[in-house]
Amino acid sequence: MKRQVLACKCPCSGGPGILELSEIIRCSPASHPCAPRRGLSAHLPLLSRLRFVFGTSVVPALDLVDRQSVTRFVSPSGRTVYQVVGSSGKLYTCYASCHFCSCPAFTFSVLRKGDNLVCKHLLAIYLSRATGACQEQSVSNQQLTALLLPEEK
Amino acid sequence: MAGAGAVGPRPRPLLLLGPTGSGRSTLLFRAALVGASVVSSARVLFLAPRPLERLPGGKAAGAGAIQRIHFLYPASFQELLQLVASLHQTLSSSSSMIVLDGLEEYLNNCSSPCTAAQLVALLLDTSNYFSQKRSHLSVGCQLIVSMKFPGEAGEEAEHFSAIEHYFPAHLWLHPDTGVDIGLDNQGLTKLIRAHLLQPGTKDQEWMVKFDAQGSMTISPLPCKNETENDTVSGNRPSVSEADATVPSSQS
């Protein structure tokens, strides 16, 4: 599925396909109210649906959720930003309202080739929010500004 | 993104594209003035590499509109990033419009397509943040960015391809020769055809006329297949019939 297909339908300004992706995640197996009771296996068709849309990112993203790798930082100004600990332990910055991740896969596969909607870190944020597995941390306004900026090389 | 919370209507981010001399800065400034005139709570942030050479006066400026435009001139890509990232700390009131002129000049100092995308995503995330802060009001925060047509290959094209998807609406400016309407006879110095493309709505076109006194007139062109004027959804800046004394364009 091409990114543009979803982007075209998106009525909000949050970047490619934000609303559609939120809907898909809301209907995903992990966020289903019955999931804890019935186990994930009861929702395999839904997992397949998730895989159909997000491809091979789904399993690594669920793994990141399991490890509680997603942290949402909030400052007194109300500004938020996410950080995800990648599988190698590296920290990636993701913006709260539009699709951006500082990982190389986002640049290559989402921005350049356009063959994926999101990277596994962005997907992990959606899934973490949906399952309540997202860590929350308060920081100062100044610290939040620093988190929004690219890492200095 | 998930958990962003309910916000008011979010105007679509708009990318204004045109070649050198197509009046990008002039139109952008006009949009900022319109944006600043909508309601008294409007606050426009105008970002550019350098000040416009001449600001409009008289009726075009409106009584208080220009005072509601906050001009900032970050000199480099790094300064721009720093400024945008810290707006939540530094601005006392939420912006209703963020305008960036001359994106291509900033991208010249940008190391990679990823960093270019990060700048645009940061602008978008910031305008969404202001929309959320303004959710008690009827309109959110509009983002409008102008840039010169990128080349077809090389670094410019790579940067453009990384950022274009962040803008659902594109306004293309095409200089017109004016042969058909007799440019000289009407005292006009420049004619620009503006073509708005946004998914889910009909394309729209306007003719932008500049005369020797620096006045700008914008008039809608009929759709290719229809003659009536259709309105486009979203809160793009109004570019209906208008006269304005305009600043010298830097583009």
UniProtKB/TrEMBL annotation, chain A:
One of its GO terms (cellular component) is Shu complex. It comes from the Eukaryota. PROSITE patterns: ZF_SWIM. GO terms for biological process: double-strand break repair via homologous recombination. Pfam families: SWIM. GO terms for molecular function: zinc ion binding. Keywords: Metal-binding, Zinc, Zinc-finger. Residues 92-130 form the SWIM-type domain. InterPro entries: Znf_SWIM. PANTHER family: ZINC FINGER SWIM DOMAIN-CONTAINING PROTEIN 7. This is Zinc finger SWIM domain-containing protein 7 isoform X1. It comes from Python bivittatus. The lineage of its organism: Eukaryota, Metazoa, Chordata, Craniata, Vertebrata.
TrEMBL record, chain B:
One of its GO terms (cellular component) is Shu complex. GO terms for molecular function: single-stranded DNA binding. InterPro entries: P-loop_NTPase. Residues 219-251 are annotated as: Disordered. One of its GO terms (biological process) is double-strand break repair via homologous recombination. PANTHER family: ATPASE SWSAP1, PTHR28653. This is ATPase SWSAP1 isoform X1. The lineage of its organism: Eukaryota, Metazoa, Chordata, Craniata, Vertebrata. The gene is SWSAP1.
